[in-house]
Amino acid sequence: MLQRMLIDKIENRILVGVVSFVGIMVLVGWVAINESARMQSFERQYLARSVERGAELYASNCATCHGTDGLGIGGQGPALNSPHMFGFDYFAEFVTERTLLEQEEQQLNNELDDLREELVSGDINEERRAEILERRDAINERITGDDGIRQQIAMIDEEMLTLADQLLPASDNEYPIRITADGEVQYTADRLAQVSWSGTLYDYVFTTLVHGRPTSISYWGSPGNEVQMVAWSQRAGGPLRDDQIDDLTNFILNWDRGDDWTIEDALAVRQYAIVPGIGGDVEVTGEPAGTDVAAILQTIADEGIRGDVARGEALYNNRQTSELGARLGCSGCHTGGVAGPATVDTWDATLELRLNDPALAGYTAEEYIIESIVLPQDYIVEGWGANMPGGFGQSMSIQDIVDVSLYLRSYSDADHSDGVMQPADG
Ligand code: HEC
Ligand code: HEC
Questions:
Q1: Of 202, 327, 376, 417, which sits most exposed with the smallest number of CB within 10 A?
Q2: Whose CA is closest to 408, among 360, 356, 345, 364?
């Protein structure tokens, strides 16, 4: 009796132990299963709220240039809500199919070569010979027959042309598509590919918002009514916090339609991104100045090159292209000190501050200004980053440099009579 109770108890204990162990496992499993669903739902709600806040910020800060619907405004701002922005490729299926067919043809041609070699080698019997000829005919049929590869490729090309014809009106609004004279369709489906951006779209939008596009002023808007995508981050002197920029980015990314973009969507866009330098003939009338500052100054003196302040102003503010046909975009960064030292102070700051820096001992103001233009990385103005692009020695002639420098100098009241650079009219 006592013994039975004892066993009973032990059995009971084991039972209780097993039951509670299983119970705990079930509970842990349940929580684990639901945790990811719970997290997902949490993330969805978080994203939804972020998109909502982004929509408000967008309406009050961005719609004037990009349109309330994000479809862009002619000359004022590019569409953000477009198949191009999200890299939707209308031709993707055709291109894949075409590539596969071309690969198949390549393989068959290789096989043909091998067969031909075997044939001419001579040491094959009749049976093998007949086999080779039969295979050869089959391959030729596959390549050039009625429903062969060539024919299929031609049909794809025709379908691509039909589609391109439908999309072509969008090119009036800068959608990058064209049909060449020999009927080839050329297009860039993806905005990110167009600007060689290798990161994600999120990073692209976020970064654009943080830093703005100082140079956009050179190809947006119209003379006297230039438009610029400014920096929005407080980090870059703009009005928005990083979390607000995150909200705006989420709002913009929420326009993505995945695989469901239609031709109508492409045609509804009022303004696509503009690629500077494409379109319009470049007229070259001078030689690049190069980057040898001493040689540039010497040429100015030797040849008695005189400057034109008004032309310098036009160059600086993108109303005119340089002698190498380039838009310089200086004002985009320097006007108002947006993304570089302010234009109006440049010459006086050179005289009063830069030339007193031991690092520039022995420099003349002219030498410093020219060096700042053709070799901007050689001396970085305190408080600024190395963000001025190089290459102006290639895109500007000596005449351009003299004109632009004299324009910068026109803001200074100091005596410049002993300078090498002088205006034509004084
Ligand atoms: C004054 C007009 C203006 C305002 C306001 C403006 N933008 Fe822009 N934005 C532009 C222009 C012009 C460009 C094109 C820049 C370029 O081509 O490099 C641009 C470019 C962009 C791009 C990059 C598009 C691309 O295809 O490369 C994004 C993203 C963008 N803006 C978002 C915004 C958001 C969000 C706001 C509001 C916080 C905003 N913009 C406010 C004019 C504006
Ligand atoms: C993308 C922005 C950007 C563009 C475009 C740009 N700059 Fe700059 N520039 C800067 C920055 C940033 C600095 C300060 C850093 C440095 O010293 O390189 C600077 C410095 C200078 C300086 C020295 C200013 C000083 O106070 O010491 C001169 C002069 C100058 N730039 C002229 C030009 C001219 C002329 C052009 C057009 C041909 C031009 N910049 C285009 C950003 C730009």
A1: 417
A2: 345
Torsional class of 162: left (φ above 0), alpha (ψ -120 to 50), beta (otherwise): alpha
CB environment 128-165: b (16+ within 10 A), e (fewer): eeeebeeeeeebeeebeeeebbeebeeebeeebeebbe
395 and 324 Cβ atoms separated by less than 8 Å: yes
Q: CA 113, CA 130: separation in Å to the nearest integer?
A: 16
CA distance 350 to 200: 41
**Beta-carbon contacts of residue 91 (< 8 Å; ≥ 6 apart):** 160, 163, 164, 185, 187, 189
Looking at ligand 1, which atom is closest to the CA of residue 248? 35
In 3D, which of 420, 425, 219, 411 has the Cα closest to residue 313? 411
Burial class (CB in 10 A: 0-12, 13-18, 19+), 54: buried
Q: What is the CA radius of gyration of the chain?
A: 34
Indicate which atom in ligand 1 lies nearest the CA of residue 84: 26
Residue 234's identity, in one-letter code, is: Q
- Please state the atom number of ligand 1 nearest to the C-alpha of residue 215: 18
Lowest mean pLDDT among 180-194, 286-300, 409-423: 180-194
Identify the residue whose tokens are 């009749």: 126
Contact 171, 178 (CB under 8 A): yes
- CA-to-CA distance for 194 and 40, rounded, in angstroms? 34
Pocket lining: 340 vs ligand 2, CB cutoff 6 Å: yes
Q: Spell out the residues 6+ positions from residue 89 whose beta carbon is closer than 8 angstroms to its own.
A: 95, 189, 190
- φ/ψ region of 174 (left if φ > 0, alpha if ψ in -120 to 50, else beta) reads left
Cβ neighbors of 334 (< 8 A, separation 6 or more) are: 316, 340, 341, 342, 343, 346
Could you tell me if 51 and 250 are in contact, meaning their C-beta atoms sit under 8 angstroms apart? yes
Cβ-proximal residues to 375 (8 Å cutoff; 6+ apart), any chain: 291, 293, 390, 393
Among 388, 409, 412, the mutation site with the greatest number of ligand 2 atoms within 8 A of its Cβ is 388
Q: What is the pLDDT of residues 155-193, one digit of tens each?
A: 999 999 999 999 999 998 999 999 988 888 999 999 999
Is it the case that residue 359 has pLDDT exceeding 90?
A: yes
